Amino acid sequence: MTDKSLSVQSKAKPKICAIDLEEEVVEALRATGLYCFSGTLGSLVEVPNLGRRDSHPCLLNSSFPPNLHEYDIVIVDLKDRESIKYIESEHTHKSFKGSSKTLLLSSYPETVFDPRPLSSSILGEELKQFFSDSTLIIVFCSSDETCEYHPIEVTRNSFEERGSVKHSLYDFIPLLKEICNSKVGLKTMVLDVRKEMKSFLTKYNESFIYKVVFRHPTMWLQKEGKNVKRQDFVPLLVNSNDQIVGFIDLSLNSSVVLAFPQLQNRKKDFLLELIDELLPGLFPEIFPYSEQFSWVSLESYFLPNQADLLAKKVKLEDEYKSALMEIENDIEENHAQYKFLHNLITETGDLLVKAVEELFIWFGFKSILNMDETNPEIKEEDLQVPLENGLLVIEVKGIGGTSKDSECSQISKIKYRRAKERNSFDVFALYIVNHQRYTPPSERRNPPFSEQQIADAQSDGRGLLTTYEIFRLYFHIEEGFITKEEARLSLLEHGLVQFKPVKSHLIGYPLEVHHKGQVVILNVFNLALHNGSSIIVCNGEVWFRVKVLEIKLNDEIVESVSEGEIGMKLSRGVLKTSELWLEDASVDVT
Q: Which fold has domain 505-582?
């Protein structure tokens, strides 16, 4: 037994060098007990070469382990990377020995310096020792990039250009550079390869996106006098034109190269399953230290009943996928049905007006006129809502900030114009705004109207309202806190329109709160309050129900009370600023 085999058997897990693999994936590999070095070919750099005379020195920002030859697996992800800003201090040698040094010069018109192709060439030199052992290279392929570099030699007194060199993103494995061409697509097909590999790839096939295709390499047969396809190159995946997009290459001495397309959102699961379950069985010479004996999962070594159980598993997975697809369809239909609610708090223009119209129809208003649809030439109110006792005119706006005085009051002019046309003062006016629409509604200024704007609206006999308020109103109605009829009446109020459970009885605010809000002290007057009563709690934007668990009057527990200062224990904590409403006794809150 050689020293090499002894050293291999002593390893508990393979050592992995991950080049440009997402940190989430690296951490997932480490979590399984694998040693994983996180390296990089480097980040693209935005160089401020704005004019013809502009140029900036650049240094490579790659990172590889110094003992790469001692690793067992190298994973290289060639996905597109975001660029970083040029910082001069990061492209200057902090310490240097010798009388001259070499830098790379990025000059106008280049504005993005890509270090990856040159770093790929350097990685290729490091890998030459790597190839001499039984090792594995896994590549997630992407579009090829070829860059021209301009090295300069800097001395004490001058600098001198050293010509130019070109490098490819695939320089780290010469074969890939020779046979690849950039091409993008989504449709891939798994070829008829070894059963375990085919099953594995089929599982992830819908997630592949290829950005490069490969030609099958050939070799010259002297006796036959012709080129033939190499047998040690095994295509795994092809696109709709039968071009290779994934393969295994067995030509690098005892090392193996596996090339795959990019994966959308499933790279972590793909790699974990590939390394932990598939590769030890396919390449035992690379995984002699695997603790999994994964070859026992091959069909040749199935245990009794295993085939039937696996068939049941496949059936369940198919049923799950079918059920999941059905739920996804239901989610899409539900989203389409209720999209108007999201439009209320995101949109502007016609989409916002349409969302308000749809909600008002749900409130129970009949025969609403969308004026932009019926009279697009007339730019006045957006909606007219016929009422039993008159007409409601509505102006709807979606804005990035808050409303100006003129925007709030514009609806007044329309109100009086319609009243004059009808020869009646039965016209109600409402201004509805989706304000600060780029900010989450709960973080907006609510309400967004100044005290003066509210006072002016009360004086002019018009209402002010936000789309977020009616968005929440929808759910308050659904939860039974307020009825559609109550909502329709509230929409006709003057000043700041507010919705309250008006058919319930207002208790007021707690005088004191104790025990995390579950015990409150308050005054009641002319109310029939009982143990078990239901109370609606209005905490600003959040409404909920609580149940009365215990009532104390004059330090004595009582079953009911109608007036006085009482203590009350509730099923859920409230705030001192909570508004409390006694709900109808017919409502069940259990």
A: Elongation Factor Tu (Ef-tu); domain 3 (2.40.30)
